[in-house]
Amino acid sequence: MKSGVPTRLTFARGFSLTELAIVLAIVALLIGGMLMPLVTQQDMLAINDTRKTLANAQDALLGFAAAYGRLPCPATNASNGTAAPLAGGNCTTNEGFLPAVTLGIAPTDNQGYAIDGWGERIRYAVTGSTYNTTAVAPLYSCPANAAVQVFTTTDCMRAVTLPLLAPNLQVCTSGCATNLTTQSPAVIYSTGKNFAIGGTGNDERENPNRNTGAGNLDPTPGRFVSHDPTPVGAANGEFDDIVIWLSPNILYNRMIAAGRLP
Amino acid sequence: MLLAVLLAVGTLAYVVANLAPQAFDAYRTRQTQEALAQAREALLGYALKYRDVEGSGVVYGYLPLPDLGSSRNNNVACTDEGCDAANFTGNAPNVTVIGRLPWRTLGTGPLRDSNGECLWYAVSGSHKRTQPVSPMNWDTLGQLDVVVANGSNAMASAIASAHDRPVAVIFSPGPPLGGQDRRAVGGDIVAACGGNYDAANYLDPGTAGLLAGVSNYFAGTANNAFANTGAANKSLSLQGVVQRRSDGTLWASTCPAGTTCDLAANDAGLALTGDMLFGALRKSSNFRADINTMLDRMTSCLRDRVTTGTLTPAAIAGYAPPADKNGGRIPIDSCYGDNQAPLNYFSHYQDQFFVATPTAGNFNVTTDGIAQSCPGVLLFANQRGSGQSRATIAEKATLANYLEGNNLQSFVTNGSIAFSGPSRFDTIASGQTTQQDIVRCIPAGTSFTTVDSPALATGGFSQLAAYDPGTRTLTLGAENVTTGQGAPGGALFGCAWMQEAHALNDGLRAYFQFRFIQLGTSVGDNGFVFAIADAETNGNNVCGASASHLGYSGYNGVTPLLTFPKLGIEFDQGRNADFSEGVANPGRNDPCGTSGCGGTVGYNSHVAIVYWGHDTANAIDGVTLTDYDDNVHGFPSTGSQTGGRPAPKNPDASPGIEFVNLRGQASEGGDSYLYHVRVEVTPSHDATGAAELRHTSVNSQVWIERDSGTNANLIAAMQNTTRPMAQLYPGYAARLRDSAVMYDVAITGSSCTADSDCLTSQACGTDHRCYRQALRTVRPGFTGSQRTQDQQVNIGNFFVSWSQ
């Protein structure tokens, strides 16, 4: 009787190895099939997050201009997310980081810099367009100076007046074949998913990034490139930066409404 | 386990499949709306700087044309994709144009809807900048109509009043419908947006006729892009998806349950109305300055007309003024017409101005809360209020559509003579209502009041200052009034002042033209001064002494002195060398320009900025009579500027003093050249520190230009007092410039220990005297004199704009 256990019963108690293997294979396929879109989904999410942060930043900049009569200077490596200088005037650098602390933008990293969907700091450039204000200033709070950065010095836009404002940031397409604008007051951008290793292609080099420096200089300060993403090996290199810029007309409209421009 | 896994995956799939569309739709709608809103805001920005960028030939309110394709834009200044079109074949007044949003012109970059399609843009034939329609103001009607599907066979208008009609619409074209071919066809640059420029390939309906006769394009014209809408408005569908049921009824967004529909249209649009446009413009201080300058100028012109009895209001059809007054719209008058600053405004805004004069007595006009008795009133109707419509000729002839409250009542009612309102057009944010009537008292008397020299009248001589309100010309000097002809030497002065004092606030910009006339063989030997007198120390009856004092300095023995603080622009015909206080012909330290004294320019006539010399007697400069050195160049000299509160120095070097040939010219028939002069005075008060050390920095700039055809653009800029020269003509440096520090003025006889012991806006100094700001209110005017030679200078087109 010891050996009287029916073979059929033993067989019915579980799956055969073959069956298990098939199930596992199917599950693996299913998961694998879901995983690939998941990665894409995550990228999409990061891109959308970034776009939203950039749009918020643009709104915050417009609000700042309406409230203070100027745009903030970019934050520097050392300024911990604060505009440098905080009070405006001629900026320490015209191409730096979004001054998230000054603008009150979230999310930020531990040092107070606004971050994109990949956790990298969001970049911000403001026009360094200067004007000799000795003919018009001191007027309101605008000082008389031979070379004042008009857009970042309180009330200087107002003193210099609309027709003489000449914002000069340039945004162009791949290889700078076409200008999208040559008169933007401010550019805000994320260096994209490839922030750690990218930034060396012809196009991405124009947008200062963490790999900008000796051996990988920004060819033309004041010029930025914006176009749809291109893969490694594209004519002007890999490109995945997300760039938006301020229309001077929208800036003027907001500032006039706030009485910060004539 | 397998079942559980399958169940979980199935549930997840179900949730994803059912949730995503709504969430995604909402996200897409928001993305589209954000793009449309950005485009509209950029268009407003364009409109806000339009006059300042395009020059004063145009008024605010016009919008750019769409981008019609680089092959058709004809825009030499901007030839790429996204540029606005300039004039094009087929364009004409009232032609509405549909094309792509001119994103390059607007600086936004290629804005896209959620479908990735670049935005389109329709501009009403009434509001486009090329082939413009006049008049352009806040009552100009748009020629676009918004229609919606409401379940009937026709699209119904969604516009409540004619004034709500959009002046522009920005479209998101959405995904292509049947019949829409969005492939590039060549000919135009489409690197950024792709596709082509045929409006029918983007805007709906895709199949003609599906939308009950409505289409968001103009079938039949090149690229279906334009047509004249002067007679019939263009209906547009902006509501996004419109479904067409088999019975021909049109439904917004979704088809009624249980029935089947075809997608007729999916264009989402955002409208810009005239009220939005001018709501934004009213926030622009440049726009308000233009309107207020118009009011200032009209008031100044009309007082001369009323004084001379030559004001006849323009009739309004159907309106008979009540028996006790003459009233109507403002009449056409070159004194404030399109050729005066603000250039080209009058014809666009003349509908908005009303004037009335009483047949006897005065009106009670309350402006800014101050009651005045006035021989006339000027009213500016302002924007429409609720219930007001100015769309038809009949509505435009109805006063109630323009005026409100007691202004309306007094205009139409016999016996009502009260008018009230603020004197300046201001923002809604300042508390002014949209429709607030702006009210100006037309004051009694002419624009200038002259100060006579009684001894001349006694001797039977002409006075040396005369104002003709008919031609609005001020004449200083007269023929046959010299010491040689027996006129008393001390009596040869004449002054003219603007009647009312005005707060200097942020400064003033003045313009006038002048010419010295040859009398016999003389164009004069003295000159005149454009003076800006502190109105707290000087009335409109002050004048200085004769001869080289130019009526600006010195005591003539009769009228009150022109006392400091003050500022003058001296136009001096001759040279009085060195300084001496001799009464007959005291020196002025005038510069030498002729070879006789070692000069090189060939004439001694000069123009200079002057203040008031010494406050107190000074041995270094040899001054004992402190009122007599007010136009002595170089005084107080640096060494004599003693004490903590020195008077500003009258400049004695360029750019505070310059040679200008004011002498007679053969080419002018012996007269001097005709000169245009513009003066900008900009004060800034420093109210820190002890009261006696507070001071005003007064920056003065003077442009002088001889009349000629070759510098017409400079002269036009000089005449435009609505804006600072630095904005109108950057780089056109003033001929004369100086910056003076004027210390606050001690109140004579005052005594204090605290600010509260002094009057409002005064402060108590550490020396226990009260101090007030210099030149807080001023009165501009002209002073002149002559002595041994006849002199006549004609001053015309004088106008002052006051900065606020």
Termini Cα gap of chain B? 81 Å
Radius of gyration of chain B: 34 Å
Counting helices, strands and paired strands, the structural category of chain A is: alpha+beta
Query: Beta-strand percentage of chain B?
Result: 15-25%
Flag low-confidence runs of chain B.
none
Report the helical percentage of chain A.
Answer: 25-40%
Beta content of chain A comes to: 5-15%
Shape of chain A: elongated
Number of helices of chain B: 11
Compact overview of the structure:
The complex is a heterodimer of chains A (262) and B (804). Chain A is an alpha+beta fold and 262 residues long. Chain A contains 6 helices and 9 strands.
List keywords for this structure.
heterodimer, A: 262 residues, alpha+beta, four-stranded antiparallel sheet, three-stranded mixed sheet, 6 helices, B: 804 residues, eight-stranded antiparallel sheet, seven-stranded antiparallel sheet, 11 helices, 36 strands
Can you put this structure into words, describing what you see?
With 262 residues, chain A is of the alpha+beta class. Chain A has helices at 7-12, 17-68, 100-103, 156-160, 202-206, 248-257; strands spanning 95-97, 123-126, 130-131, 148-149, 169-172, 179-184, 186-190, 223-225, 242-245. Chain A has a 4-stranded antiparallel beta sheet, with helices on one face. Chain A has a 3-stranded mixed beta sheet with strand order 6-5-8. A two-stranded antiparallel sheet of chain A has the order 3-4. In chain A, a hairpin with a 6-residue loop joins β5 (169-172) and β6 (179-184). The longest helix of chain A has 52 residues, at 17-68. Chain A starts with 6 loop residues before the first helix and ends in a 5-residue tail after the last helix. Chain B is of the alpha+beta class. In chain B, strands 19, 22, 23, 25, 26, 27, 28 and 35 form an 8-stranded antiparallel beta sheet that branches. In chain B, β14 (363-367) and β15 (370-374) form a beta hairpin. Chain B is elongated. Classes of the chains: A alpha+beta (262), B alpha+beta (804). At the A-B interface, α2, β6 and α6 of A face α1 and α5 of B.
